[in-house]
Amino acid sequence: MAEITLKGLAHSYEKAPSGAADYAIRQMNHVWHQGGAYALLGPSGCGKSTLLNIISGLLEPSEGDVLFDGHRVNELPPEERNIAQVFQFPVIYDTMTVFDNLAFPLRNMNTPEYRVKPKVLEVADILELTPLLKRKAKNLTADEKQKVSMGRGLVRDDVTAILFDEPLTVIDPQLKWKLRRKLKEIHERFNITMIYVTHDQLEASTFADKIAVMYEGQVVQFGTPRELFERPAHTFVGYFIGSPGMNFMAVEHTDGQVMFGAQPLPVSEKLKIAVANARSSDVSAPNIKLGIRPEFISITNTPDSHSMPVQVISVQDLGTYSLLTFKLNEQTFKARLPEGHPPLKETAFARFDDAKVALYIDEYLVEAGHE
Hints:
Layout: E1 4-11, E2 25-32, E3 37-41, H1 48-56, E4 63-68, E5 71-72, H2 78-81, E6 83-86, H3 98-108, H4 113-126, H5 142-154, E7 161-165, H6 173-190, E8 193-198, H7 201-207, E9 210-215, E10 218-223, H8 225-230, H9 235-240, E11 247-250, E12 252-254, E13 257-260, E14 263-265, H10 269-276, E15 288-292, E16 297-300, E17 308-317, E18 321-328, E19 331-338, E20 347-352, E21 358-361, E22 364-368
């Protein structure tokens, strides 16, 4: 196992990159601590797989260093880094038995045969592959093949880290939850550094202790699932985490009020001062936004001094709650209504929970309520 450090790391597939847009990975510094269970979460094209391939040694970074326990490994191939990588599609030998597939990494290292069998049996037991050990891999189901692929990474005692690149893509949805729990159990048992790449926030939250959210080649926030939900450090995190994501509105301070277009927002005095003092890098078109999650918007049929009139567009019953779509100042918002919420009229009244309204300048969090 090892602590993996990314120092001034950046990567471009262009021979002569001329700007940030030419970089698949923009310059970053990041540490994966020994024995941690991590997720790299983000949409397609954000740089997740590129970063994973740099860590594993399949790709050499354009700039910066990859350090394992403080030692630079940029030029080392994957086999010398002792990295195991599990890909979207199972990498196994169809003509071999399950036992021989699991044993292959050990035999490839000239491990004595008397040590091979106990280790294979141990890993097979953990992954519930014992009844399949004599079966040819070509006869397995997709999820069974992926478990064998995972087992090939677990069977070695000298593995520095195991990297998972969207390993459940080909797995039946009903089996995904079970396999995610199995991976969690394996991590707790072996205490191996694991990094799991996915675009699915549920997969990331189920597997990882901490999640690195990537956006446009950068890690824009690194934290626990709860931290990502409660204090999104970047507007993309607020949008990407949660179902549905955070609502955002561009605001300005005018005559002592926080204005969303022509609509004054009934927010706290502290937030009014924060918006008044906000300074965006773009003076001509300041990028200042307020964000609030759908869970923290209250909707009623009667107004009060802290509410705003909104136009009800639709209400979708999702069983334990309903999802309201409404318009405020011609922009669409979402709110979650608790089960049994009274029916709404065409015009309703929205109220924001002051403690849950966050301020973003140039897309980054600067103020998160005042709890």
